[in-house]
Amino acid sequence: MGSKTMIKKFFQVSAILSLTSAVLLAGCQNKEAQQVASESSPTQQKALEPVNLKYYFFGVSKPGDQEVYDGINKVLKEKINTTVEFIKVPNGDYTQKMSVMVNAREEFDLAFTSPAYLNYFDQAAKGSFVDISTMLPKYAPETYKLLKPTIWDAAKVNGKIYASINQQIFARQSGFNVNKALADKYNFNPTSVKKLSDLIPYLDKVKAGEPADKTDQLYNAQMKNNVFNYFFPSYEWESIGGSDVPGAAKSLDSNPKVFNEYDTPEFKDFIMTLKDFQKKGLIAKDSLTRPTFDATKYMAAPIATLMPGIEETVKNTHKADQYIIPLGDPILTSPNAIATMTAISTTSKHPERALMVIELLNTDKDLYNLLVWGTEGVDYKKISDKRVEPLPGAKYGPAYGWMFGNQFNAYISGTQPDDVWEKTKALNESAKVSRLYGFSFNVDSIKAESANSAAIVNEYRAAFNTGMFGDDTEKKYNEFLAKLKTAGIDKVLAEKQKQVDAFIAAKK
């Protein structure tokens, strides 16, 4: 749909709906809803009051950011009389920073969310995000039509939708990438890797054979992320009710049983391997304190989501060709279907306008690619209508395409096949579907235990991920499990099992 047709759609739909008995949000939201509804054509859109929105997401700040954001705002101003303040937060700090803001009821409008970042389930349940169930068809009709009802079902909490799902790869298959040139140089066979510890022979050789100043951060430990969860698809596991709070189940079992994923041989092997990585100098010694990392020095890294064309993505990140090592088969789960979403804060004074911005990022291909790729002729050049090439002097991006709107509108580059998005859609359709697909956990009865358990996970995570506990790792691991017990993890697991059982029983 063209941008003019889409804007016309906004106001035509709103005008019709204003004649019905539909109830919109109260207070200032009603004022804006009525104002939008009063318009009937894009030529009258200037009657929309000018608003500025705050949009939070994670990423690394680049010198060219503001120029690109100014270009985006020029378009938004013309189309919906709106400007957006785009605010990047460092990846590892995102959940903590945003949680503090949300708890303090700080005013903002849009934010990236998922089960792993700013826990979608928890924040939706406690009223941090606007219920957009009825607003989506009104203010983002094309976005709503992009996804099948079964995909939207994955976003429901107590039967309601609290964030817009970004169109991207929904099936999940995890893996690793390793530097191709050095793997070839040291005769390393990437197909030999079945688990994290299998990378050690390769990284040991690189550590011994390359200059010391190039080998101080050979493995990307992603210190503050839920890296262990990356490997869930290869175990055929999935998180129940968000990844910060322990509780997982086997996706394909006929009667899934909930367990504490941290109290498993798999997790213990994970942290003991990372302890070895740290002792061998394969992970940066100052991982917990250094402000920045050099992605070009990583000779191996975990990948949360493999997809068609992933080779080009990791090549751009690490500035070198990579071998891709898949683990397991693709699985479609509810947490994976909503792994990247955009929510509207209940502190927003303009939720309808925020949803209009989401609509434009999903439907306006030029606007979307400006946000992802930057400015044509400055950050990239076009090879064809849909293929681009980054320019050497680029000061922006490319940004994470899956973080905003509809990634299937993204330009392709490098070794990505021309039909990469068609292949991605096909993978979404062909993946194994979890028995728990559509399940949504209600945290209400265990809010305190869940919050206490999440706090403990976050207390230990970074040190576990970077092997910083050293020879005390096993001792700290036992301490970690004991603290979870004290926090009430058994009650959390029991409640999760109860709800899973009820969901499975209802399907039979």
TrEMBL record:
Pfam families: DUF3502. It comes from the Bacteria. Keywords: Signal. Residues 436-505 form the DUF3502 domain. Coiled coil: none annotated. The keyword Calcium does not apply. Residues 1-26 form the signal peptide. This is DUF3502 domain-containing protein. It comes from Paenibacillus plantarum. The lineage of its organism: Bacteria, Bacillati, Bacillota, Bacilli, Bacillales.
